[in-house]
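Reminder to self: tokens first, then the designed residues, so the page reads top to bottom the way the pipeline ran.
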């Protein structure tokens, strides 16, 4: 089972100055920055996935989150996705480079943003190893398996169009000699309809199926989907789980013959979670989670800036408290400061970052922050980690502050998670 990371142009400045909180002089974005697979050894994933919607804007979709400039898109298609992402060379020759259309970008539109022909050309020009047929997401999944007649016209339309696109996509791949392995995107409104769509795709010639629409589903529903799917498709047909949001539960899905899955969860949780920002193995084939220590930049943090503009906070006072918090944490890391003193300095500053709600709510929030802070400092997990990120930047990795710290913490999480998946696979053999 391979773990793929979905690329979102996540890289860091390898020479970032943490003391001054600034990039290296004359640093050039992308050219001087490094991806997780360049910063860390071993590589923290088995391959990369690139969504077409992240590279090329979806027509008619104003909210499309394109992360590539026009020149970057052109360079990717000219040089190939491996070279663009610097994921080439003998070390990565067997790694998957998977493309999909990024159907979340146009989920609210009447039809997919890209035709099968456009999607095929994108994969072929980008020299992907695998490419997913263009689909239209169906989020509903009724485990009672209602018949087609019970579903609305929009569900019918999305289901049929996803199958039609898969059929046309396979036809193009066959006519062009299969420059990459085609993967059939599977959608459905129930476990049975998903299985029926998968059987249809097997008849079209697909031997690798990408199961979509899983993101909002609960673990028990995903189990029912995969159980039903495996009862209907061939044992040798490969399965990929698209955007698997339940990545932390992957150990519960090893019996379904899953070939691969992609997730951004380990990196995103580094900065989009209140209490599980930093991963560590717990020695029992599981993971422990720690809250990062939030020391925001006094004159850049939106909440603190709002307080300054409203005259609630004095900027010079905030900066002094901010510096005390950073100094206390770094001295604690060096054994020059007690944990209690570090906690008090950090909480003194944290109080100013917690200004919303009534006093009772603020007090409750601060109590939770203190509890998580004490847990993180008691265990000091960054001291026990020997990954390339923690070994180089030390305590900076646990500080919730600026993209260069937060992304490095995300890279650390990817590495820990990848090792977690490998342990699970070894245990299941």
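Designed residues (429 positions):
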């Amino acid at each position: 089972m391979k773990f793929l990371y979905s690329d979102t142009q996540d890289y860091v400045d390898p020479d970032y100055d943490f003391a001054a909180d600034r990039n290296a002089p004359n640093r050039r974005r992308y050219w001087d920055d490094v991806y997780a697979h360049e910063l860390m050894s071993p590589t923290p994933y088995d391959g990369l996935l690139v969504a077409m919607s992240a590279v090329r804007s979806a027509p008619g979709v104003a909210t499309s989150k394109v992360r590539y400039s026009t020149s970057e898109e052109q360079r990717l298609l000219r040089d190939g996705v491996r070279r663009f992402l610097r994921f080439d060379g003998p070390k990565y020759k067997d790694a998957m480079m998977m493309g999909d259309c990024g159907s979340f970008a146009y989920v609210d539109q009447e039809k997919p943003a890209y035709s099968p022909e456009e999607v095929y050309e994108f994969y072929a020009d980008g020299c992907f190893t695998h490419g997913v047929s263009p689909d239209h997401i169906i989020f509903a999944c009724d485990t009672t398996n209602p018949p087609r007649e019970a579903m609305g016209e929009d569900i019918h339309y999305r289901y049929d169009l996803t199958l039609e696109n898969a059929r046309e996509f396979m036809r193009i791949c066959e006519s062009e000699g299969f420059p990459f392995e085609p993967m059939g995107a599977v959608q459905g409104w129930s476990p049975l309809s998903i299985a029926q769509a998968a059987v249809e795709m097997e008849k079209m010639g697909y031997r690798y199926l990408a199961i979509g629409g899983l993101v909002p589903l609960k673990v028990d529903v995903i189990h029912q989907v995969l159980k039903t799917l495996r009862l209907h498709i061939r044992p040798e047909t490969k399965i990929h789980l698209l955007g698997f949001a339940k990545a932390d539960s992957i150990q519960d899905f090893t019996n379904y013959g899953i070939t691969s899955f992609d997730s951004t969860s380990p990196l995103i949780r580094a900065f989009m979670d209140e209490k599980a920002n930093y991963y560590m193995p717990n020695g029992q084939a599981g993971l422990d989670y720690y809250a990062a220590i939030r020391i925001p930049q006094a004159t850049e943090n939106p909440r603190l800036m709002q307080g300054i503009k409203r005259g609630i906070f004095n900027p010079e006072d905030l900066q002094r408290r901010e510096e005390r918090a950073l100094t206390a944490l770094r001295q604690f890391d060096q054994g020059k400061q007690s944990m209690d003193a570090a906690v008090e300095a950090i909480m003194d500053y944290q109080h100013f970052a917690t200004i919303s709600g009534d006093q009772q709510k603020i007090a409750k929030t601060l109590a939770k922050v203190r509890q998580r802070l004490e847990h993180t400092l008691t265990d000091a997990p960054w001291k026990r980690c020997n990954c390339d990120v923690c070994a180089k930047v030390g305590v900076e990795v646990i500080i919730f502050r600026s993209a260069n710290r937060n992304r490095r913490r995300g890279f650390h999480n990817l590495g820990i998670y990848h090792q977690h998946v490998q342990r699970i696979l070894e245990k299941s053999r």
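Residues 403-428 form the longest helix (26 residues).
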